[in-house]
Write a structure and sequence with these properties.
By secondary structure, this protein is of the alpha/beta class. The protein folds into two domains: about 210 residues, P-loop containing nucleotide triphosphate hydrolases (Rossmann fold, 3-Layer(aba) Sandwich), CATH 3.40.50.300; about 60 residues, Alpha-Beta Plaits. It is about 35% helix and about 25% strand. It has ten helices and 15 strands. Helix 5 links the parallel strand 8 and strand 9. The longest helix is centred in the middle third of the chain and has 18 residues. The two termini are about 35 Å apart.
């Protein structure tokens, strides 16, 4: 039986007559790194804030750890929404110590997480002198105090340089793999989410368009052989029979075969021998970026929808 850490049912958030989150149903399983992908203003931050009780939903329900959410469940959740709220006149350790009084965590935990995010050697340096990447890493370390089972990170690499992005990715993968933490990460940067996400939730204009695993996305974006021919139905039947490929798309006088380019010559030879006129044969590959853009473009944007981040 699948174990869910977070599920939402018809989650909706309105600001007056503006809809920021529109009937969203999210499904995050234990162990997932769930990439919440969408453009700026898609509704990602608002949805996360509602889950964390930073905003109240207009309608809909939220289930955490297999039961309807109550305030006590949030003890098991760590979060970093937008930019971290830090004590800039204090050191990294002093910040961790202050927040440990709220979220829990021993001195051993503080030392461990500071070491994990690479801030164990900054000493008494004040946070006001930290780079953006250092502040972001400290914010994640604070979110991990109390050893949460579920970590919600809103745009954790936004504004970071390539090295800062890599540092954050390494932290995400470490806590997921070594600590068993389930993660819910929002971003408008597909190139970064692709490096860590195991599942994607595609959101645009407040509406969740699709949830798809990384494995399924890879399959859908794999190379296909495109054949334009005189008898597409007959051609598809021949390919199914001889190559065992069932999922062949047929459109007008064209077929799309999900298969590696290496067999294209054999496909062409077989169709010609079967007296099917082949007018065009090529290789088609959809990039993950094209896939996401096509999904986002499939949504008709309504008035007053998706006006908030």
């Amino acid at each position: 039986m699948e174990e869910f850490v977070l599920r939402t049912f018809g989650l909706t958030k309105r600001f007056g007559n503006k809809i920021a989150v529109n009937n969203v149903s999210i499904n995050i399983r234990k162990g997932d790194i769930y990439g919440f992908i969408g453009p700026n203003g898609a509704g990602k931050t608002t949805a996360m804030k509602v889950v964390l009780d930073l905003m109240k939903p207009t309608s809909g329900e939220i289930e955490l750890f297999g039961k309807m959410k109550n305030q006590g469940d949030l003890i098991r959740v760590g979060s970093l929404i937008e930019s971290p709220g830090l004590y800039t006149a204090c050191s990294a350790y002093e910040n961790m110590k202050r927040f440990s009084l709220l979220f829990g965590g021993t001195d051993e935990d503080i030392a461990f997480y500071l070491r994990m995010v690479g801030l164990e050697s900054v000493g008494k340096k004040k946070v006001s002198a930290f780079s953006l990447g250092m502040k972001q890493r400290l914010g994640i370390a604070i979110a991990l105090l109390g050893n949460p089972e579920f970590l919600i990170l809103d745009e954790p690499v936004n504004g970071l340089d390539p090295m800062g992005m890599k540092d954050v990715r390494d932290i995400i993968q470490f806590v997921n793999r070594e600590k068993g933490v389930t993660l819910f990460i929002s971003s408008h940067l597909l190139s970064e989410l692709e490096k860590v996400a195991t599942v994607y939730g595609i959101i645009n204009c407040g509406t969740l368009i699709e949830e798809i695993t990384a494995e399924e996305l890879e399959r859908r974006c794999a190379s296909s052989i495109r054949v334009r021919c005189s008898e597409p139905q007959k051609a598809a039947a021949i390919i199914r029979e001889n190559f065992g490929i069932e999922q062949i798309d047929i459109s007008d006088n064209q077929i799309l075969i999900p298969a590696p380019p290496a067999i294209s010559a054999r496909v062409n030879e077989m169709l010609v021998k079967s007296e099917i006129q082949v007018s065009e044969l090529g290789i088609q590959k959809v990039s993950s970026e094209d896939y996401f853009l096509s999904k986002m473009g499939s949504l008709n944007v309504g008035m007053g929808v998706g006006q908030y981040a």
